[in-house]
Amino acid sequence: MQTYYGDFHVHLGRSADGRPIKITAAKGLTLAAALREGQQRKGLDLVGIVDAACPPVLADLEGLLQRGELEELSGGGFRFHGGLVFLAGAEVETEEQRGPAHFLAFFPTLEALRAFSRRLSRWVTNPNLSSQHCRCRADDMLEEVVALEGIFLPAHAFTPHKGLFGQGVDDVAEAFTDRQLARIPAMELGLSADTALADRIPGLGGFTFLSNSDAHSLPKIAREYNALELAEANFREWAMALRRQEGRRVAANYGLDPRLGKYHRSACPVCELIVDRPAPYFGPCARCGAPQLTPGVLDRIEWLARYGNGSMRHSGGCFPAGAAPSGNTAVDTSSDSYFLPSSVQRPPYIHQVPLEFLPGVGPKAMQKLLDCFGTEMNLLHRATDEEIAAAAGPKLAKTLLAHRRGEIAWIDGGGGRFGRVEVR
Questions:
Q1: Beta-carbon-side half-sphere exposure of residue 208 (alpha carbons within 13 Å)
Q2: How far apart are CA 78 and CA 72, in angstroms?
Q3: DSSP character for 73?
Q4: Which of 17, 222, 259, 303 is the most exposed place for a label (fewest CB within 10 A)?
C-alpha cells in the first residue's frame, strides 16, 4: 500500500466557455484550473470535483478527454496529465424532514456520470447550475446513485446550513432504512467539526469520516484533506478505502481545529455576537436579547449527544471524546446494518491550520515557499524543520514551525465568520 492525499469536495465557478456553475464560487475556478491547482501547487494525488454532472462541466470533461489531457482509468476515475486522479461527482440538495440537506455523489465512469446527469435533470429546475434543490428525498437519490455503481455520502453533515444533522434530521434513521445506511460508507465532517466532536453522537461508528475543503476558490483547495492507503490511485481503490476493505483505508484526516470553523459556535443573527457560554446554547442573545441564535456545530452536536431521540442504530456505542475508531476494520455491506466495535480506534484527526490562515503568509510568501518546496504537501509533510528555517527566513520560519508544533492560539469562529489564528 502507498499513501495518497485527497480532497473530495471542490466546486467550480465557471465552465471553460464562461457559463456560471456554482454561483458563489470564483470565476477563475474552471475544471482545468482546479485540476492544475490540485496537481501542481497543492500536490494532491486525488481530487473530487462535485459539479461534474452539470452539462457544461461534463462537456469540459469530454473535451479534456478528447485532447488527451485526461484519460479514463480502468479502475474508475480520470488521470490528469499522467498524475492527479480526478473523481467526478455532484453535490445535490434534497428535502428532508426538517429542511434541505446536501449530499455528495461520485461516479466511476464517464458513462455513469452522463446517466446521472440525465436523471438529475428530472429533479432540478436548472441542471446547468451546481447544488440545485432536487424535488426528491435523499433515500430516492441514494437508490439512483447506487444503481450507477456510485458512492453517496452526506456533505458537511453538521453545519447549520444544509447539513444532514445541522438542518435535516436528528437521526440518520429518519432519512434512510438500515439497508440503505449499509450502502453509505462515509460522512463528510465539514470545517467546523472533527472526529472527536462527531463521535459524541451515538450511531456514527459505521461511517468513515472525511475532511474536505468545500473549496469555492483555487487557494481553498486542500485546506482540509485526507491521507489514504491504497494499492493505486483510482475510483475502485478509493471506494474500498471508504469501506475499509482489504487493507485500504483512510489513514488520517487533516483539517481545521473546529474552533476556526465559521459555524463552530452559535451566533446572533442580529448583532453577530458569537456565543462563549458552555454548549449547547441557542439563545437568547446576551448582548441584544434576540430570542434565537443561528445554531453552531458544537452546540448542535452537544445537543444531539445529550438529548437526541436515541434511535440511532449503527454503532457499537458512542465513542468518548478523542477516541478514534479504526479505519482497519472492514464493513460487511451485505448485511442490513453494520458498525465498528467500540474497542477499535479511528485514524488520527490532525488539526492543521491552512497556510493562508497564518500571519505573514501572504501571496508573495506563499509563492516563495512553493518555489522552494514545489507543493503544499511537500512543505507540510516532507520538508524538515531545518529546510523550512533556511528557506523562509527567521520571522516566517518561526510562524511555520510554531504551526507545525501546535504552538498557536485562536479566537473561535461562528455565525459565518472564521476564527482567527494567533502565534504564541
A1: 32
A2: 4
A3: -
A4: 17
Per-residue exposure over 146-160, b if at least 16 CB sit within 10 Å of its own CB, e if not: eebebbbbbbbbbbb
107's enclosing H/E stretch is strand 100-107
- Out of 215-229, 277-291, 295-309, 401-415, which region has the weakest mean confidence (pLDDT)? 401-415
Domains (range + CATH), the chain: 2-260+304-351 (3.20.20.140), 355-423 (1.10.150)
Which helix (H) or strand (E) covers residue 6, if one does? strand 2-10
Please report, for residues 32, 130, 188, 267, the alpha-carbon distance to residue 212 in angstroms, rounded to integers and kept in the order given: 19, 18, 7, 24
Residue listed under C-alpha cell 482546479? 34
In whole angstroms, what is the distance from residue 319 CA to residue 199 CA? 5
Q: Distance (Å, rounded) from C-alpha 132 to C-alpha 142?
A: 16
pLDDT tens digits, one per residue of 297-318 = 999 999 998 876 544 443 322 2
CB 257 within 8 Å of CB 353: yes
Kindly report the number of other CB atoms within 10 A of residue 47's CB atom. Answer: 28
Span 352-362, mean pLDDT?
A: 79
